Amino acid sequence: MPGKNEAAVYSTGEGRLCPGCGRPVAGCLCRKKESAPRGDGIVRIGRQTKGCKGKGLTVITGLPLGPDDLEELARRLKQRCGAGGTVKDGVVEIQGDHRELLIGELQKQGYKVKRAGG
Question: What sign does the dihedral 26-111-106-61 (CA atoms) show?
């Protein structure tokens, strides 16, 4: 049994529990509050070379998705481009310059997309 200042993290009846609100992870209230970042509704696609040893990255910002959905979208976009990449702090980074392909792909999915930078 947890002490006074400790929260339970597992229940045999419910499974994993959120340490913040104490509810089952599937019904957690904490994560829903911070799930989707607020923005102006425009997805911006740009190119970045800083920290890439001269090679370019396509950077996608402003996606109104939670962390899990963002990872899933990034996975599909990387497959579409045939390139690697990652998600860092709500920003999707895809190796190489794939701006035109990604603009078309995201517009097909119903996002309002703008090209950022040069």
Answer: negative
Each residue of 60-115: pLDDT tens digit? 998 888 888 899 999 999 999 999 999 988 899 999 989 999 999 999 988 899 99
Domains in the chain with CATH codes:
1-34 (no CATH), 42-115 (3.30.780.10)
**How far is 98 from 80, CA to CA, in rounded Å?**
10
CA atoms within 13 A on the CB side of 9: 3
Q: What is the largest CA-CA distance in the chain?
A: 59
pTM score of the predicted model: 0.65
Q: In 3D, which of 105, 9, 102, 107 has the Cα closest to residue 47?
A: 102
Are 9 and 80 in contact, with CB atoms under 8 Å apart? no
